[in-house]
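Deliverable D4.2, example record:
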Amino acid sequence: MKKNVLDFWVGLFVVLGFIALLFLALKAGNMSSLSFQATYPVKLKFDNIGALKVRAPVKSAGVVVGRVASIGFDTNTYQALVTIDLDKQYEFPKDSSAKILTAGLLGEQYIGLDAGGDTEMLKAGDTIAMTQSAIVLENLIGQFLYSKAADSGASKASSAPAPAPASGAGG
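Output generated by the structure prediction step:
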């Protein structure tokens, strides 16, 4: 009888361990929030998507209203083409805008939607025209360093003595 009780507890421990590993795997793969709600696709075009990934959240006012369905490249405009699946329960005006934001300083990237004021709502397959690309940290650092180098170059040039005028007229 004691052996059966011990076997039961060991089995229960193994099953709970398996469930915990499954949960961690889904969380790491950003699939822990699988939803079977009806959705509608909307397209977005960005100049730079940074580190945006498929299944990244789409948020409006901090609420997850959808997920990134696919990421591609438009060979005509040379822009990133992002398709998002918005939950049907959330309708957005046609003049809504989208931007790629970062959760925290170096966190994961997501798409933020700002609702517009149009009376007509987005439908399946529509494109949001007003988009703002991701802010890439390396570009910001490069711009900062370039501006500092330009400032120090300008200050050196202004503090240098003016060249003396040439004497005599050439001829």
